[in-house]
Specification:
By secondary structure, the protein is of the alpha/beta class. The protein is built from 7 helices and 9 strands; from the N terminus they run αααβαβαββαβββαββ. The strands form 2 sheets. It has a 7-stranded mixed sheet with strand order 3-2-1-4-5-9-8, sandwiched between helices.
Length: 209
């Protein structure tokens, strides 16, 4: 069973509702700003993996209008909304578990809460693929929901649909990053936003290749 694809189907179905709840969320803006500041000057190439309705891409482009930004998401309606929100960027329906198929290189990759929909094995593969897609000195931003792996499973969201949430261990994520040649520049824990359907402790990591 492809849990990630099932969750993407729910996000496609309720993309407009998700946009209403999270498009103007400012809780993580300081972290996004730090990501921008770590990028090289000029027309840096950025990948927004699991871009959703374009909320992160919109912030990045507002800070750095010169960015060459590509956003990808497995939910087609999310990609449509992202194109509407950030017409100056490029968006495509693409599975973030297959970064290598893009055949492109980047100065920065940001994956804001894509990991909750990836198993630990898929998350490890994503980090390895990010290493391959980033140029030397490239920056990687990850955020995840912390918890025990055995607590992962289908969760009922506010619409009544079920999505599969994966909880990750901070030490495991750091080991994966270090094993792929990244150094963690910053790690932060914080409570999930009030609009979230499940209360969690979130982890944000900024790393450099």
């Amino acid at each position: 069973m492809d849990h990630c694809a099932i969750s993407a189907g729910v996000f496609h179905k309720h993309a407009d509702l998700y946009r209403e709840k999270f498009m103007d969320l400012t809780l993580y803006n300081d972290f996004y700003r730090e990501f921008c500041e770590l990028l090289p000057e000029g027309r840096a190439r950025v990948l927004d993996a699991a871009c959703g309705p374009g909320n992160v891409s919109r912030y990045l482009m507002a800070q750095r209008p010169e960015l060459e930004l590509l956003g990808i998401d497995l939910a087609p309606r999310m990609v449509e909304l992202a194109r509407e929100a950030v017409p100056s960027a490029e968006f495509a329906v693409h599975d973030c578990r297959h970064l290598g198929d893009l055949k492109r290189h980047f100065d920065g990759i940001i994956c804001a809460f894509g990991l909750p929909y990836l198993s630990p094995e898929e998350a490890a593969a994503f980090i390895r693929a990010a290493d391959g897609a980033l140029d030397p000195g490239g920056v990687l931003y990850l955020s995840a929901m912390l918890g025990n792996r055995e607590d992962s499973g289908f969760q009922r969201c506010s619409t009544g649909d079920q999505i599969y949430l994966n909880f990750h261990d901070e030490d495991h994520i750091v080991r994966l990053l270090e094993g792929s040649g990244f150094s963690a520049l910053k790690k932060s824990r914080m409570a999930s936003p009030s609009a979230a359907s499940k209360v969690t402790t979130d982890l944000i990591v900024l790393a450099k290749k």
